[in-house]
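Quick one, T. Sequence first:
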Amino acid sequence: MKIEPLRKIFDKLGIDVNFFDLDISLPLAYQAKFDMKGIRFYNQLTYLLVKETRPGTLESFIQQAEFIAEKSGLDYILTFTTITNEDKRLLLKARIPFADSKGNLFLPELGLVLAKQKEVIFKEKFKPSEQLIFSYIIGFAKEKLDLTEIQNVTGISVPTIYRSLRKFVSQNWLGSEYGEYYFKKKQERNI
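Structure tokens:
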């Protein structure tokens, strides 16, 4: 199996990989039909690259790759010289990892390792009025919020200010008591 095209793709993406030979006890028919290499990402995740030397159907390729992966004890990545758009679509839909020498690449498990988990502060976007009020609160507000001052500075109506402040209270960013809004203590705030 020619690994240089794949090495260039991973280098271009900035992914640290090491290729190595595998010794898997397989029937002679499998040894003749498939090229196999091991690949290790970041010296942690190890996979089996499987490439057909004599092309057959995609379904049989997947079934045979699963058999080889079972024998090796590693998850597999189907490897192609080139892949048709239809085959790409089918593999993506089935979430089967694949790579080809043209730069097409789908590795769902690796994506989970490479992508940093970001904490979601809020799921919905702020409305423009909420953005303006939130910006005012962060930049200029004191411990207790003065609604008249917010209205004078932002030009937003009092009912809209109240709606926004109630939303911030429900997000646990502000506290409310007897119609007054205030910052929660630092250890209680989730901002």
